[in-house]
Structures are given as C-alpha cells and as structure tokens.
Amino acid sequence: MNLESYIRERLGERKVLLMTHLIAGYPSLEENWRMLEIMGEVGVDLVELQMPFSEPVADGPTFARANQSALEKGISLTQYFDLMKRSTRQFTFPHLMMGYYNTAFRLGHGAYCDALSDGGSVGYILPDLPVEEGEELFELSRERELHPIQLMTPTNTDQRLAEIGQRAAGFVYVVARRGVTGSRTEIDPELFSFVERCRRATNVPLALGFGLGSGADLKRLQGTVEIGIVGSQLLRVWEEEGESAYVDLLRDLGEGRY
Amino acid sequence: MGALTDEIFAPERPGYFGSFGGAFVPEILRSTLDELIEVFDEARADESFWPEFLQVMQSYSCRPTPITYLENLTREIGGAQIFIKREDLNQTGAHKANNVMGQGLLVKRMGKRRVIAETGAGQHGVATATMAARFGLDCTIYMGAVDVERQRPNVFWMEQLGATVVAVEDGAATLKDAINECLRDWAYSMEDTHYALGTACGPHPFPQIVAYFQRIIGLESREQMLACPARLPDRVYACVGGGSNATGLFLGFLEDPEVELVGIEAGGLGLSSGQHAARLAGGMGVPGVAQGYKTYFFQNDEGQMQHTHSVSAGLDYIGVSPILAHWHECGRMRTESATDAEVIDALKLLMRTEGIIGALESCHGLAGGLREAATMDPEQTVLINMSGRGDKDIFTIADALDDAKWKEFLRQKVDKL
C-alpha cells in the first residue's frame, strides 16, 4: 500500500484524519482486541501498535508504566506480531509498528522488515532512530513497501528538518512540543508557525501528536495538518473511566474529523 | 597523542568508537546535543581550558591524588608489587568529582542555570550536588527508588547540599531507570538545563566528554609511576560499571602497548548464577541500542534489558561505555570479573593491612588485581584504581560484612527515636 495515496484519498471525505495508538499487551491482549474493535467500529484512519520496550525514553509516565506492565505480563515479539497479523486481517485501517530501535537491531534489519511485512504492517515509528543511523533499515524498508515514519520536532533547525524531510515517506510525525508523550499541547500560533516550518521541509502529509484529547482538538487541527494523533488520552480514559467512556471518546474524536 | 587515543577523541565517524557509540535519541534532544558538542569542541580547542580545569581540581578536589604503594598487602599476597591510585581522596570521595567539575565548567560556558543528573550508589549525585552548590546552579538528581532506599545517607547529603532528589519508581527502579528519567526531564528542560551524565555512556558526546575529564586519572598516574617506582606498571586494573574510572585510568596507558589494561566487572553471585553485571567478561552482554547509544547490553533475545545484580549499586548497570566495548572488542583491554564475596574479602584485607577503606565498586578492581598479582613475579608491578572511598557507604558495607555490633547499634538508634 502507498500510505501517502491512502491518506490523500481518505482526505477527500474528511478534513483531518485520526490516528490512534495502543500498547500491545496492556492492559492485556484481550483488552487490546476490544480497543481495536472499537477503533474499527468508529472507523479510525490509522493505528499505531506499540511494541513495549524496557527502556522507553521517549514515553511519559503513563506509557512508561504501560510498557513495563506489559513486559511483566510477558508480552513477546511472537505475541506482538500475532496480534498485528490478526488485526490487519480483521480491520481495514493501516497499521504502523511503534517502538524502539533495539527491537529492530536485535532481530536484524532484514528479519524485522520481514516480520512487519508478514504482519501486514505498512511501516514503523522508531523515535530513537535518527535519520543518519537508519540508512540501511530505510533502504530495506523501501524494497518491501514499508514506510519509515520520520519525526520532526520544534527544536530542530530548518537545516535538520530538511535532512529529515528528505527521508520522509508516507507522512511525517510532527511532535507538537518538547517533552515526552502524554502532556497537553496548546494549539497556538507558535504551533502553527512550527507546522509551517515542517511544511517547507517536506511534501508528504503531516501528522500532529502529543497531547490531543478531544474531537474539538481535532477540529482545531483541520486545515493545519492532515492527521491528528491520539494516544495517552485514550489509554487514560480506558484505565480510569472504562470501555463505554472509551467508545464515547473515540466517537467524539471520529466526529472531530468532519 | 597516538592512534588509539585519536580513535577516542577524534574518531573518523563522530561519536563512534569502532562500532559502538552513536546518538540514538528522540529528535527533540538533537539540538541540545549539538549545542553541547559545539561548546565541548570549543572548550577543548581552547588552550586555557585544561589548565582552568586543573586549577579547579587542584584547589577544590585534592589533585593530583597520590599513588600509594601497598607494601603490607604486597607482602601478604606474595607476588607483583601493588600500587593504588587514590581517587578516593577526591572531593566527595570518588573520581566522580573529575567529571562533574569539568561539566560544570561547560555549563558555565553554555550559560545554563540548572543541572540534572542520574545516580546509582549516590556518588555521582552527591558530586553533582556539590558542583551545583559551588557554581550556583539549581540541581535535580534522579535516583531509582530501590537505590534511594539502600543509599539513604547519600540522599541526605544531596538534599543538604540543596539538590532535589527524585525517586524513580519505573522499571527496575535502579540506575538505568534514573538515566531514562533524566532524558525525559531534559526533553522538556534543555533550554536552561544541562544533563551532567555521570559515566562514559549515553549518546554522543557524553562518552567523549566524560573520558576527556576522567583521563586526568591516567595522565597523573603515568607520570607518577614513571617518577616512583620509575617504571610503567605491567598491568593496570579498574572496576567497570558504566566505565568512567576505567576509561579515565586506561587513557593514560593506552599508547603503552607493554601495559596491559584489565577491566573488572561485577561478578555478583558468580557468572554461572546469572546474578551479576558482567556484560563483557560474562559473555552475557550482546550488542544493542538503548539509553541513547550502542554497546554491549545485558538483554534477552528480544532486546529487552535484564536485571543485573551486584553488591555495589555503582556497578549494577545494564550497559558499558562504548569506549570500553571497543577496547574489549579490539583486544586492547582484557575483561574479567570479581564476585561479591571476593570483593568483600579484598576490602577486609585492604582495611586490615593498609588502613584504607575502599568503596565496594573500587574493590572489584582490587579483588581482580590481587588475584592476578599473586601469580606474578616480585619484579612486576600492578596499578589498581581505588576509584572511591567506602567509609561513607557504611550502611552498605556493614550490611555486606554482616556486622552484628552495627546491627545492634542501629536497633538502639531506632529505639531512641
């Protein structure tokens, strides 16, 4: 699948797309499946399926604890790829692997790409793999039509954004602010000017993440970026308010696209 | 400088030592690492910088630290002559002062107002807190909750020195988790905050910066050995946790091929028990990428980091300096291990025969050195880095020695509360 074409096509019917996130094995594989079913019912546009790692430096407290808990419960790569395979067969939204580079490094770049292709994934997000370290993996990915999703951040210089933009495929993950996953982002003029800088560095669609929590947030992104990413808020609602609140939030987010 | 030293301070591929090192960090940190590289490169190109560093260390931290010939212990062991480098005599009682004061000078150049650091045993935390007090910086120390519990006296001192100590509950709640938490804090705070990483690990340029300041140990040692006993040691020993004291000592002898460099890792309950932190010597470490760099990590087949064990919190760590990983792989450094029990025996012997209370970490180097010295000729010499002193770790050491009178004292203290 060409991810960029999928996104552009999808934008014919919506003003912004919704990418949601879940951590494999947290709270449990069974609950993961229920989350995916709800995402399927609401018709989210893209899903990030995170493989837990013992040293999740890019994750804030909520996800860091979830990574650890999933590992303590014994989540393995076999279970992870099994969940991905079942999910890609069942649901139509494209799946991206999210995780940390050591998973790819330990498996070996070739085996990692094979496992992703076999699982039906369209690509991956590895926040601790900078572009200059990823050449070999990116090359192998291209051969298998896997999209290495690059990240742009507000502290990057224009020159650095351009370097990242050159390697972009599918879309670019725009980190809206400093810090780690899970804190609020103000949708303000500073954010818009950063998005403009990203726009100049790449032609692929932009996905904006870090701290989005409602359909209203998503509405405010219409016309600014192509995709809104929601992660921590979904997990927080699942944990604290339960399944029906989770359904409500996803419906609200889904409506924020129009 | 020779070719091997150039590999560390002017490598062909920036940030890499052979195939180890690099900077695998979230993109948000890229700009602040670039800023640090620039300031560090400017500083080391500035001829006045190293003398400024030496002046600080001489006036504030008892440098040059002496080399002591352990005459009694040599007689007791009956092999090679044993010398130790007295890093235990530094400000705050460990070689950690070398690195933090150096990084403090870089913080001044960058004009930042706050410093954060991870700590395992608490030595680097205490050292950073003293530096922050001296240089007028705000200071936050991240420490695994397990370590906070086993190193309460160091937490007390950090707080008295004005630092905020944050107990990290995530993961194994030890050193590696404190490093993760520092990286997270830094991802927010980098504009006015410097991360003073305490060992020669982490993303480029940290291994290089820490090696640059810690090489003061090796430079002094080489000169001192040439003055008296007027010869280079046959072998030099240092304990290896993250690897800062070993890197610092070994850099002084790197270009002397006749000097064998021996790193001693924490053998814990023995290599066959699986309860240890011998990533190189134990053959249990495999190359991986975590905490911002590529090195040998104690991990499983799927790349998840495993729990390490050591009697000394300072060696209880999953990774090892990429510089040492490189020397290990190219054969310049030999790596061995010493068990908890051997280390406690070595410490007891050092105290009784020489009146020196070494840190448990440093006594790994001592235990490895003594084991080998016994098999060497009396004309040969070994130099061991006594990287820190142990008297401030009285709670840990008393525990390790299982001292009954100490336990009774604690009981009485508690009763009086």
CATH architecture of the largest domain in chain B: 3-Layer(aba) Sandwich
Oligomer: heterodimer
Fraction in helix of chain B:
40-55%
Q: What percent of residues of chain A adopt helix (DSSP H or I)?
A: 40-55%
Global Rg of chain A: 17 Å
Number of domains of chain A: 1
**Biggest interface between chains:** A-B, 39 and 35 residues
| Overall body shape of chain A | globular
Largest sheet of chain B: 6 strands, mixed
Mean pLDDT of chain A: 94
Spatial extent as radius of gyration of chain B: 20 Å
Q: Gap between N and C termini of chain A, in Å?
A: 25 Å
Task: Determine and state the CATH class of the largest domain in chain B.
Answer: Alpha Beta
Main sheet properties of chain A: 9 strands, parallel
The secondary-structure class of chain A comes to alpha/beta
Annotation field: number of helices of chain A = 12
